[in-house]
# Entry
Amino acid sequence: MKKYNFNAGPSILPRVAIEETAKAVLDFNGIGLSILEISHRTKDFENVLNEAVSLFKEILSIPEGYSVVFLGGGASLQFCMVPFNLLNKKAAYLNTGTWANKALKEAKYFGEVVEVASSKDKNYCYIPKEYSIPQDADYFHITTNNTIFGTEIRKDLDVNIPLVADMSSDIFSRPVDISKYALIYGGAQKNLAPAGLTFVIVKDEILGKVERSIPTMLNYKTHIENNSMFNTPPVLPIYTAMQTLRWLKNLGGVAAMEKINLEKAKLLYDEIDRNRLFVGTANTEDRSIMNICFVMKEEYKDLEESFMNYAKSQGMVGIKGHRSVGGFRASCYNALPLESVQALVDCMRSFEKNN
Ligand SMILES: *Cc1c(COP(=O)(O)O)cnc(C)c1O
# Structure
């Protein structure tokens, strides 16, 4: 049966990126060897890394003065690397969910952390808007897309201290004005590549300002100066990332992608709002276009398991909500076709009819 892949992460990738990766695993560039068994210092692989970085910069229109590096350790290691490199005395964090909270906790190892606002009071169903950022903080940290709670900051914020963003689950989903950010990072496994790859976009001039010494591997400068080749980078995920970025460029880049993402999100949110059985969990104005969370209305709660089973029988995969929200979460990343969202909507309609 056809599967509709709504997994939250690792998650759906463009079919062509998976096929090209499979080919390179068997025979890379016709050299008669697998990409898995050659040195990362070969010309063949260096070309892959360079193309991936250059597509990254081109597709996101990254201005001069910024570097893109590929690392290991996931977004979770960035929770610590960011303050290690940027926090001298004080940092400001916006607490919009589980990941934001984890980032905030790590920063406390390095200095004073101000939580400028939190939406924990309502189980993170909204993005706080009214808050003031201490102007003497070294940076302000946000999580643009809250993968678990389905809220998103889709407008690039104007703040007058360096802005740092975890974009693990919405990078490449829309155009971003990079010049408004000092640093953007994320795990690649939501919208770009298989797990094991972390990307960091960093404005060069913000580095080198902290007083502490930074261990070599945790220092962004090490990786910038060595073009992400200080040590062995995650070779295979970088190859897939390059393929995903080629696919995205062919499709028209992030502006075209955003249009498609908005269309997909509208289709599903319209059905959630129309359907008598379901209700969305995120505040309407803060709804994520990547992770769409919904539950059964209070009076239909006992139908939850039955809908889950029905959806599964129709080929839906990965729609179970995170335990901290419950219900359902449909992750509609870049590679998810509109047709999959339509299939889920059809499912919700026929389930409504039969119940
Ligand atoms: C998935 C996710 C993370 C965690 O990423 P790892 O690569 O597993 O460390 C962090 N932040 C956000 C927003 C995420 O979606």
